[in-house]
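Supplementary Methods S3. Input chains for the assembly prediction are listed below.
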Amino acid sequence: MTLKTLLATVSAIWLATTAGAEEMKMAVTTSFANSGLAEILLPQIEKDTGITVELLVVGTGQALKLGAAGDVDAVLVHARAAEEKFIADGNATHRREIMYNDFIVVGPSGDPAGAKAATKATEAFASIAEAKAPFVSRGDDSGTHKAELAIWDAAGVNPEGDWYKAVGQGMGAALNTAAGMNAYIFADRASWLNFGNKGDLALLFEGDPALFNQYAYLPVNPEKHPHVKADAAKALEVWLTSDTAKGLIEGYTIAGQQLFTFNAQPM
Amino acid sequence: MNDIFQGLSQAMRLVLAFDPGLVEITLRSLHVTVTATLIASAIGLPLGAWIAVNRFRLRRYAIAVLNALMGLPPVVVGLFVYVILSRAGPLGVLGLLFTPTAMIIAQVIIITPIIASISHQAIRELWADYHDLLISLHASRSQRIGTLIWDGRRALMTAALAGFGRAIGEVGAIMIVGGNIDHATRVLTTAIALETGKGDFALALALGFVLIALAIAVNLALHILSGTERGSRW
Amino acid sequence: MVSPILPLTLDAVELRRGGKRILGPVSLTLDGEGITIVLGPNGSGKTSLLRAMHGLEWINRGHATWNGEADSVRARQAFVFQTPVLMRRSVLDCIAYPLRLDGIDRRRARDRAAELAVSVGLNATLDAPAQVLSGGERQKMALARALIRAPEVLFLDEPCANLDMASTAEIETILARTRDAGTRIVMSTHNIGQARRLADDVIFLHDGRIIESARRDAFFAGPGTLEARAHINGDLIP
Ligand SMILES: Nc1ncnc2c1ncn2[C@@H]1O[C@H](COP(=O)(O)OP(=O)(O)OP(=O)(O)O)[C@@H](O)[C@H]1O
Ligand SMILES: [Mg+2]
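Predicted structure tokens for the full assembly:
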């Protein structure tokens, strides 16, 4: 960096962070942000559409609240039931499925509960509960948390007791806690692959279709919130369903693994 | 232990390479906190002086409230500002949520009581010394406050620096009202929280070292500046 | 020509502090010209009387009346405190401060302050912080600051308490000159010789009351009260 560019950066930040290109705010989930995909998509979006997308990284629950309050222009989340309620409440006109990734079960490499041997996610969960092996839950009303609860429910287990620890934090913090306690945890694959503090944890269970995690894009309803940037949100939706997006999303790998599968219907 | 050394060496590398990402969030940290400190000082210093110099009925309560506000948890301030600035809130039309301005507002609320309280303390001592002289010379109210602020400027600078220190290291409130948006509202502290969340302790520590260095640099710079003044004049 | 701020009238003035009467009732009129010396043992109320006249003390009973509104006429008086008030400024800026309050620009105020510093015999480094001054230098600084506005009435509370003989003589010369220039001076002291040299009138305080008030010669010729006689003699014969 030369002095000149430094000065340019200084003045750019000091004076006006909001010059030129159109901006819009989108609330996304922690798991999406932790995947690192955003860093690939956003520059291309800016290049193709001229829109600077500012990401608010929050849990699904808060992302939807931000949309409902009109504090963001769109949300990208993964919690179908909550999304449908969001639309029913008039906060968005529709939801558009973009892509999916999957959840995994991570735990101590010694696997004291024997989750590895399970053939279905519900079995893996049941074995953990049976062994009363320490399990860290997001406990933050996020999409991942909701997916986890759905599996407990399907497994017929009411997760309670000393072994079940709801931390009320984001994916990264929860992973840190699990690494510190050498506990089991339910995580999205991207967060896990990008996580830098694995400790003794290892991936123990994956592949059950029940673990697929569908991401949907919901532009905030401009009739409810006239100030939202509906045009930008529309343009982003068009881009997210385009072949360019498909190429980038499916081409994105961490440690040689593809994370997301594109499944949007082109507009 | 290993993390600490890795963090230190990574901090070195980032700083020496003038890493653009680091430069950007460092400048934004400075921008937000310096602006907040200036505004909070403009409110807090005269307020502290005013409370020290004036006797009014609710003075004891004002001081008690000020001291209590000093202990306000930043997340509560953040939440409060969030609710006010949200589109659904009373000042929603301004569209300030998730902007640096919102972060500045939150920091001003957090540090104004600190600056006012410390300056009140300092000015009260000075006022005890100067009281008879200023009354005897028939100095007007504003002249009194002006004199006390000017002659107490060293202690007041300490008050402002205390505010700066609190603000530059603050994360709870600005995370909530700023949203930690990359290239828009991400600053050193929120970036540290983010990297810690990703389990990248080395990078988080590196940013932490940069933050500490920045705080020290600002303090030193101001002390050296006021030190030269001492050399030439007093 | 603005009207003079004198006479000052104290009408049965009484100060009570902590449930105790520390001054009064005191009645007197201050007018004309000259130097009034306030004498009295420690704790007799000299400082309290001076401060009450200047308007620095809350008066519990009675009235102190200037020829004009109390607060605004205070700017035309000056007070040299028993313990000099040091500002956190250079010596020169301390002396110049009253002029700065009057809106006079810094350079002119400092020039004038430098002249006064010379005239009161203050030989210290004027750019040094006031805090470095010695006890005697502090009193000279305070005197220079009091004189800089050319006050019509000047109160001095033991201004020579820390001064050596040479400095005391210098100050006395300045005070005599100031009196001759028309400033009304009220000064407390424990130095009986100084009282003899400077006084036109003498007030003698005992236990918060004026028990004698006379022209200088009359007072020193034959103090009417035992207390005053003892005070003078006590100082003369150690
Ligand atoms: N605020 C106060 N509360 C209680 N007592 C007070 C107060 N101010 C003065 N006094 C008392 O009033 C008396 C007169 O005090 P003052 O300072 O006027 O004496 P003084 O004649 O100037 O004595 P000195 O020669 O020692 O300077 C003293 O006994 C003092 O303790
Ligand atoms: Mg006294």
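Chains C and A do not touch (no CB pair under 8 Å). The first strand of chain C starts at residue 8 and ends at 17.
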